[in-house]
Amino acid sequence: MIGSLRGKLTAKHPPLLLIEVNGIGYEVQAPLPTIYRLPPLQQEVFLYIHHLVREDAQQLFGFGNDDERQLFRSLLKVNGVGAKMALAILSGIGAEDLTQCVRDGDAARLTRVPGVGPKTAQRLLVELRDRLPELDGESDGPLVTTAASGTVDPVADAISGLIALGYKPQEASRYVHGIDCRDKRSEDIIREILKSLVRAG
User: What is the pLDDT of residues 41-89, one digit of tens each?
Assistant: First the structure.
């Protein structure tokens, strides 16, 4: 099983990353908060990995620190929550805010994440509550730094990222073209849209 990766970041198309390790490119899916903290392309990165093995596929999920990975694994244990939804939850509200939602019993905020209905939100609150103590102390890993990255087409990347989070293509396009995207990275565009949707909800 793959527990971590250290290598060169060669592509970034939220939520998909490509990390080259000794000449081999690993496709890794990561939540948006982790992607925000990555260095520029062609720089070295280190990610904690959750290696998901199924009969028909193997998937890698990357996180900037072990707390995020543990929270992702806890989400997978919730009835009705798969890897795609767990990634969408961590992308939509982040690990710290998710922890606060569970502590506050805020199901309404959880339902604003695409694909999370009222019943799933209630299950998240109940099943995650007992696991929260082990998730305290979120911190950015020392090998994941904040820096700008060049993206060929941030608008297209932002639309793709929203679609990957569960939004319909028409919705994603409308949201992206509804804001001023000039001089913004795809990560910044997605973050601004998600924040506005949470406020509107």
Answer: 999 999 999 999 988 889 999 999 998 999 999 999 988 889 998 998 8
Residue 114 contacts by C-beta under 8 Å, 6 or more apart in sequence? 88, 92, 165, 166, 167
Contact call for residues 48 and 63 (beta carbons, < 8 A): yes
Q: What tokens does 62 get?
A: 């990357």
C-alpha torsion 177→182→184→189, nearest 10: -10
Grouping H, G, I as helix, E, B as strand and the rest as coil, residue 53 is strand
User: What's the rounded Cα separation, in Å, for the pair 102 and 105?
Assistant: 5
Distance CA(86)–CA(78), nearest Å, equals 9
Q: How many angstroms separate the CA atoms of 51 and 20, rounded?
A: 17
Nearest partner of 190 among 168, 148, 146, 159, judged by Cα? 159
Place of tokens 């793709």: 160
Q: What is the pTM of this model?
A: 0.70
pLDDT by residue (tens digit) across 99-152?
Answer: 888 888 888 888 888 888 888 888 898 888 877 645 444 444 434 443 334 435
Q: Which two tokens stand for residue 174?
A: 């409308």
